[in-house]
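Lab notes, practical 5.
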Amino acid sequence: MGRVFEKRKHRIFARNAKLSKLFTRIGKEIAMAVKAGGPNPDANTRLRMAVQNARGMNMPKDNVDRAIKKAAAGGEGADYAEVTYEGYAPGGIAIFVDAATNNTTRTVANVRSFFTKCEGTLGTNGSLSHVFERKGEFVVENAALKGRDGDEFEMECIDAGADDVHRDEEGFIILTPFQGFGAMQQKLEELGIDSKSAELKRYPLSMIPADLTTARNVMKLVDMLDEDEDVNAVYHNMELSEEVEAELAKG
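Output from the prediction step:
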């Protein structure tokens, strides 16, 4: 299943941004981490994770250092706040939006307009608590094991509280409960293993099958949301058959 699982999950459950937007997103995360816990990664777990994710995205070190210094000085970017939006797309498909913004008035207006344009409905926070759950996701490449036995590493992850470990020729995807995210991060640090990425993501607890027309309408909304500079990730619970997925891929 492995990396095939990862690619399909990212394509169906969430739309991640292009590289330039990923750099913007990690810059915001660095700023929020510095604001919350200071500019020293050794003493700030959240910042340490953000810096590690930046490395995994091949973000230039100068960019990382600049973002930390700017946030520590209280400059632009230090006033970001995390916000979420929940609603329904056509066909009753649930949509969950994670964003980071320095202007919530602008962000909510944009998000509401996207839902309206696509004949969706923006709901209240907590309305989708029964549809999505937050999980930790760690991606560890084989090279990061530095010769450690893969089977032993997988067992150590499970012993440390992993819900599931997906493995393929490239490495591992480790899923943890929301409450176990910090413990898994600490375990990897104890083992001296750097993850390519470590994030909290939202996974649907139930799926809704969609025909091609519904799928196109939903993805139109997802794409509009994903293009907004304040939006970090968009999740949905739409289930696609292989045939529908193949038609969507044609454009």
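Observations recorded by the TA: Confidence is low (pLDDT under 50) at residues 1-17. The radius of gyration is 19 Å.
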